Amino acid sequence: MFDTIIFELAGRPVLLIDLVSSILGLTCVVLAGRNSKYNFWVGYLYTAALFFLFWNRNLYASLLLQPISLAINILGHWRWTHPKKEEATAKGELKVSMLSWPWRIMSVSAVLLVAGLWGWILDSLFPADPHPYLDCTVTVLILTAQLLSALKKWDCWIAWLLVNISQLILHISVGNVFMPIVSGLYLVNGIWSLVTWIKLYRKNG
Prior knowledge:
The chain has seven helices and two strands; from the N terminus they run ββααααααα. The chain is mainly alpha-helical.
């Protein structure tokens, strides 16, 4: 069912799972960018759709990401809806906050270290993956962006922008046509959300 071809774009087939995951993903990030807690409900469906999508594409690092992604989604759902008193806005919502510079430096260092190590392991265990290091870099960036989003850190959108750019490169490199367009839409939403969250940070800071 998920392997059903629904149309072709530039001579490349677009599968049903491509379209479903794209719609769910865009809906999820648009809701998150608008500071809506309902992004997490869509996120649960999106995680399931991505599992099938990455299985079909042989992107194993991204495939193994999904159980962790689900756990982060649950954490974020709880944090956004059950903030501590000092973290809550007047409406009882979790405030947007920022990482300190030391934490930013540690985060970047951790991403580079884990992505490099994971890429080496993936290249050894799953030679079918066409771009293990790029695949792992995107994977680690997504985990970082999701965790920061779960904690409602403004910095998550910087990470998401890096994810969007990396995914553009990844999808183009494996010959996808439809997904680069979707990644471009993610990029536009990321820029929009970056501005929206900085306004929320200044308003509730």
